[in-house]
Every structure is written in C-alpha cells, then in structure tokens.
Amino acid sequence: MTMPPQTNAPFTVLAIYKFAELPDHEALKAPLAAFCCAREIRGTLILAPEGLNGTVAGTREAIAELVSHLLTDGAYAGRFVGAEIKYASAETMPFLRMKVRTKPEIVTLRAPEANPARRVGTYVAPQAWNGLIAEPDVRVIDTRNDYEVRLGRFAGAEDPATTSFTDFKAYVETHLDPERDRKIAMYCTGGIRCEKASAYLLEKGFEAVYHLKGGILAYLETVPEAESLWQGECFVFDERVAVGHGLLVGEASLCRACRMPLTAADRAHPDYVENLSCPHCAGDARKAASAAERQRQVELARHAGIAHLGEDAAADAQRRKAEKAELRARSAAQSTGTRQRS
To answer: Which terminus of the chain is more solvent-facing, meaning fewer CB atoms within 10 Å of its CB: N or C?
Structure first.
C-alpha cells in the first residue's frame, strides 16, 4: 500500500483517481465526507458511476488514513485498489473546504462509449516517455485545456486549444484520422483525462494509442530535470496554482477576477492589477466589479481579524453566531431579572 512520504511540510496533498464500476456512488457520498471532515481533510472528491477522482490535503497521518480507508474499507469492496495515487507537500493548506460531489462522470467527456474500466490504451511509464515521443511517427497530443497548456507542455506536443474536455471529441473528428495517424501519445495533468481519451480513440478505430501513466505530475516527480523534455510549469487545481520539477511550487499565480493562471509576463503587463484584473479579463466590467467587491470583503475581514473564505470562515461565522446568541441570552436574563426586581 502506498503511503505518504515523510516531509517537514505540515500538509500532504493527495491526488487520486480510479475508473471502476460504482453504481452505489450516491450512497458513498455522506460517509466519505464525514470521514474526511472528522480528520480535517480539505479538498474535493468526485464520485460517479465510473469511479473516483479528486485532490485533497491534510496532515500526513490523516491522508494515510484516507488512503487506507479507500483501499480497504468494505464499503468500497476493493474497487479502488490500484488507484493512481500521487503525493505532494504544502506549507499551507491549499484548499478552503471539504467537498464530496456526485456527478455523472469523474471527468466529463459525454461519450458513453469510452469506458476506461473496460478498455484503455497502452500505459507508458514516465521513464519511457521521452523515448516514445521522440519517435518520428508518433503524434503527441496534450489533452488539457488551453489555459493549462499556456503554462507549459512537452516539446513538440500539439495543443488542441480546447476550453473543456468535451471539445476533445470535435478535435478528434477534425484533426485525427485512424488511417493516417498510426501512433498517438497523449498526456494530461495526472493521467485521468488521457486515460479516458485513449478509451475514446480506441472506440473510434485508432489502434496504437499510448498515454503517460500518472500524467505530467508523475513525470515531474520521477524524471530528473536534466533529462526532462517538459517546458514550463504544470497547472494544478488548487492554491499552489502550478508546480515544476520535483513537484516544487511554481511561480505562476491566479487572477482573482477571472481565475486564469498568470505567468511572470502576465503580471508585468499594464493590464495586470493584483487581485483585480489581468491581460485576460481587463475591460470586462462585470468581472472587474466582482473582483473589486471581493477584495473589499477580504479587506474588511482582515481588519476585523476573521477569515473570509472556506471552512475557517464558516467556523468564524459559527463562533460569531454563538457569541450573539450568548449575548442575547444574557440580555434576556438581565431583562427578566430587572422585571422581577421591579
């Protein structure tokens, strides 16, 4: 059983997914959420008929308990054994709250014929990836969205310029041909998209379909930087924003107005105003107003010494509610005493 590595960082980040038959996913939601919340784990886990996907963070001990729970608890009947698991460390908690969601798919393609639990392409270990994508007859395709590709990609990889994974089907229809494209190698952040994309291509008649096992994150973790063909940083869906070789936190930041990842060049652009706008959303009055209001609320919360977002904010709100209730109770008691004395 894989266990989190020992680090000096206070938090361990777990990325996990597994394609598996999960018709009882709705019934699993509440117990899984309770298990995580009891251990102060935060992040998002998605349950769907096709399996489990998510990224969460907590203490090393809490994450170890969660992994053991998912792999051995009878409620899951061994269906998550063999899950793709990756760990990283974080100096601060990268998530605001804990959410367990149920959805039709753990990664949305809307192509029911693509069933990775039944058939997928050939897994390629990170150590063998360089050799594969160097072959002249291999088309290398990045299955992530355009804003992710902007931060980094493998040298020579094609960018389908998708804004959502469902767009990948149209890209296949217009850009790929099973008679012409004999070898296709795909990759994504953690392996889940390209695994499902490989199942889709096989159903469309493509024969030699490869995908990077564990995705970019596994590659950055295991392949030495001196040997790496990766260029740039890898976008991740939490407050770290991006990571580089060795899964060290990168330099990219996030625009708080439009949620686009920003490079150093973006932050040097005249349209960039910290917490308010960036080159991607400058001129959008609605987003500007929303960002300005959000920043005002942040400043008000900071001056008041309370949290603004997430479970810490919820705890602060609950504490203030209890204090008000206690104050009302004391006031009522005092009022009753005054009436009795009079």
So the answer is: C
For residue 217, the SS3 value is helix
- Residue 234 contacts by C-beta under 8 Å, 6 or more apart in sequence? 148, 151, 152, 189, 216, 217, 220, 242, 243, 244, 250
| The pair of three-digit structure tokens given for residue 220, joined into one six-digit string | 């950055």
User: What proportions of the chain, in percent to the nearest 5, are helix, strand and coil?
Assistant: 40, 20, 40
Q: Give the integer Cα–Cα distance in Å for 173 and 167.
A: 10
- Tokens matching residue 7: 């680090």
- Contact status, residue 202 vs residue 226, Cβ threshold 8 Å: no
What is the per-residue pLDDT across 8-27, written as a single tens digit (0 to 9) for each? 899 999 999 999 999 999 99
34: left (phi over 0), alpha (psi -120 to 50) or beta: alpha
User: Which residues are identified as catalytic?
Assistant: 188
* Alpha-carbon gap, residue 80 to 73, rounded angstroms: 10
H helix or E strand, kind and range, residue 269: none
Global confidence as pTM = 0.80
Count of CB atoms situated within 10 Å of the CB of 1: 9
